[in-house]
Amino acid sequence: MKSINICLEMTSSVKEFVNITQAYDYPITIKSGHYVVDAKSILGLFSIDTSKPVTVEIQSDDCADLIEKLKKFQA
Questions:
Q1: Which among 39, 31, 35, 48 is positioned nearest to 15, based on CA atoms?
Q2: Which of 23, 39, 56, 64 to pair with 45, CA 20 to 30 A apart?
Q3: pLDDT at 75
Q4: Going by C-beta distance under 8 Å and a sequence separation of 6 or more, which residues neighbour residue 24?
Q5: What is the pLDDT of residues 24-55, one digit of tens each?
């Protein structure tokens, strides 16, 4: 499992993030405080405050390409 901290301040960033994560088969979750949501769910992301740093947890060790794509959102 790998994790990174990101910040999605704009609606367009949330949409772009979901489009990126949906391309991967392994589970990806976001933790914000005590809330955990599916990173592939746009409704899940809109249910939490993504303007503050949140933690993305990737349930795969072979995810270097995904992490590279998510660096633009890194907090």
A1: 39
A2: 64
A3: 84
A4: 60, 63, 66
A5: 999 999 999 999 999 999 999 999 998 899 99
